[in-house]
Known about the structure:
3 strands
Amino acid sequence: MIGLYHAITRKDLSGHTWEAAEAITLGEALRYYTEAPAYGSFREHDLGTLEAGKLADIVVLDQDLFSIAVEDIPKTKVRLTMMDGRVIYQPQPLNAESLI
């Protein structure tokens, strides 16, 4: 989450700005964290986007990054992580209400 925050704001956690002209959008940052590594490892047909036939490598967050203030992105917590369609991290069991 800190990496996303830095990419979007070009600020460190103390508030110092680094090359503000290099800031990117949240959508771009998420693509650079998902699609780009899959492409870079020659696995874009298996990973990097959510599509039928691809491996389910996903995280579920406790906040919708597109609905919160940019300053709240570093506070966002991972609720669940899946790799190859298997849950590999889940600090507390999820129920349907917790995902809404």
